[in-house]
Design brief:
Immunoglobulin-like, five-stranded mixed β-sheet, 3 domains, alpha+beta, elongated
Length: 352
């Protein structure tokens, strides 16, 4: 994809000549933006910046050559994002206000017109109290062949804090035409498949990680026949550092209990930062990491998509709970231990 910035003074000239070229022209006027910069990302291929678009006195113009329809993200300086679908040899015009960057008006290209209808639906839903997720779900089901539906699926469901994988699977299956051949749908299907393998009630998939002393740790070798609390954290995540305080309480309560084990998996990439955080937070139980950060293979294996996160595994290796807080985990452990005590008491009574 070849791209270049166009000074505002030649917008009129370029627009007049545009029909004679294969370039796609993007112009815009966003009130209140002044002189700023917009970053253009590719949604199709990666999170890398494609280019920058320079705004002068609220206005901008940008041109690029592309051979096919691509989904992109406009990233604004305040962190707001807006999708932009770019196709060959079309003119795209963007208008709006910097105070409401999620509701820009985009004209040009079928996909952009389709997304504009979604924005209108969100505005209408404000009066009814309907959630954006519900609006997105209905829109996907009614636009089963639009590339916009793939963007909405990713934005509002796959990237959710706690993804509902059964819902994601249903929405994927609703898509038709060439969408089923899209590489992003293949990626989403892989996520759903892995999440099903690591769902509550399933045997936890095998994983092996190295602890801070260089020793290999697995559930089968180190926590067999124990209730296992697996906590995901990192030195750079403030929320997980707060959760470590609760994890310390759990460890203090059960450290002498032969039926309960704790394992913390760090998503750090810097070993020194990881070890320093272990010392600062006084984490005395087993600490493991492959120092691969968010690219750690264990995230895919155990279907973890956000941190902090905690899983409770039963003695039989089945996942009892996922995506729960340390407070909830403590209550679940007590409940499971009481169940065991009750079973043991009943078995003892039968023997008499």
């Amino acid at each position: 994809m070849r791209k270049f910035f166009i000074p505002l003074l030649i917008i009129i000239t370029l627009a007049a000549c545009h029909k004679k070229s294969d370039a796609t022209l993007i112009t815009g006027n966003i009130t209140g933006m002044g002189n700023d910069t917009i970053y253009l990302y590719s949604f199709d291929d990666s999170s890398d910046v494609i280019d920058t678009i320079f705004v002068e006195d609220d206005r901008f113009a940008y041109s690029l050559n592309t051979d096919t329809l691509t989904a992109n993200i406009l990233l604004f300086s305040d962190g707001s994002e807006f999708p932009l679908f770019i196709d060959k040899n079309i003119e795209i015009n963007i208008n709006g206000d910097s105070a409401s960057l999620q509701r820009l008006k985009v004209h040009g290209g079928l996909a952009n017109e389709t997304y504009a209808r979604f924005v209108d639906n969100i505005i209408a839903a404000d009066t009814t109290g309907q959630s954006i997720e519900k609006v997105a779900e209905d829109f996907i089901l009614n636009n089963r062949t639009s590339t916009v539906s793939i963007y909405l699926l990713d934005r509002y469901f796959v990237q959710s804090t706690n993804p509902d994988f059964s819902q994601i699977k249903k929405l994927i299956e609703s898509m038709a035409g060439t969408l089923q051949d899209d590489s992003r749908i293949a990626t989403f299907n892989e996520i759903v498949t892995q999440s099903e393998k690591a769902a509550t009630g399933r045997i936890i998939p095998f994983f092996s990680l190295i602890n801070k002393d260089g020793e290999k740790i697995t559930r089968n070798d180190n926590y067999k026949d124990k209730f296992l609390v697996i906590n995901f954290w990192s030195s750079w995540n403030d929320s997980s550092r707060i959760d470590n305080q609760q994890m310390r309480k759990i460890y203090k309560k059960y450290r002498k209990n032969k039926d309960v084990g704790l394992l913390s998996i760090s998503l750090d990439i810097n070993k020194e930062n990881w070890l320093e955080a272990i010392d600062q937070d006084t984490l005395s139980w087993e600490q493991v990491s492959d120092l691969s950060g968010m690219n750690s293979s264990v995230l895919n294996t155990l279907a973890i998509y956000n941190i902090p996160n905690t899983i409770l595994v039963g003695k039989n290796g089945r996942i009892l709970a996922r995506d729960v807080s340390p407070d909830s985990i403590a209550k679940l452990i007590e409940s499971e231990l009481k169940k065991e005590e009750k079973k043991a008491a009943e078995a003892k009574k039968k023997k008499k």
